[in-house]
Amino acid sequence: MAAKKKKQASNKSVKNQSGKNKSSKNQWADHLTHRAKAENYPARSIYKLEEIQNKFKVMKKNDQVLDLGCAPGSWLLYAAKQVGNKGLVKGIDLKPIEIKLPDNVVAIKDNILNQDNAAFLDKNRGFDVILSDMAPATTGRKDVDALRSFELCDMALTIAKNFLVQNGNFVCKIFQGNDFNDFQKRVKSKFKECKTFKPDSCRKQSKEIYIIAKGKK
Ligand SMILES: C[S@@+](CC[C@H](N)C(=O)[O-])C[C@H]1O[C@@H](n2cnc3c(N)ncnc32)[C@H](O)[C@@H]1O
Description:
There is one protein chain. By secondary structure, the protein is of the alpha/beta class. Helix content is about 35%, strand content about 25%. Strands 5-4-3-6-7-9-8 form a 7-stranded mixed sheet, sandwiched between helices. It has a two-stranded antiparallel ribbon with strand order 1-2. β1 (about 15) and β2 form a beta hairpin. S-adenosylmethionine (SAM) binds near residues 45, 46, 95 and 135.
């Protein structure tokens, strides 16, 4: 009886921003959210990178990988397994990483738009792979959100141009909007191969898509 009451309380109905009723439980939680939890990943986005890696083989053993927008850390954990203990994964995010990271991962809390993180990025060695799963905090205004997302992609591409080794690979999440074609054209001009891919694990209603660029010229 007590357990039943507790369950009812945790499922109680609340109003969302548009005034409609929704469950106070995470309405976005789905089987991948539960699977991620069971497999000790902090976010379901792990399965997007897994699909990308299975299809495009963007990372390999011993690679040095940069993960832009790395919190809460699922891609860091997955990339760390792909590169192995002789590889290295560096991550950067506005938010701190709160999970325990393996020895071949370092992460810092910083804004990618801040030019001062060049020392962390380390131009001397260069990265074999740069991943960007960055997404801006949404405002609800589609034009503003699309512009902010584009600004992050633009910065990710600049970092890829400056810090990827020759023949390096670049994966970048982008929201399909007005700037999409122009951005894709700019990526294509810098890489030998460039494709777009929407992993099955992306939420159907999401406008996000990944640009997979291989072989930096
Ligand atoms: C979808 S989450 C990334 C999830 C991550 N790939 C994972 O698997 O755990 C997007 C992240 O982009 C970060 N982000 C957004 N703008 C940023 C910026 N200017 N600099 C650094 N990180 C940023 C957000 O803080 C957020 O954690």
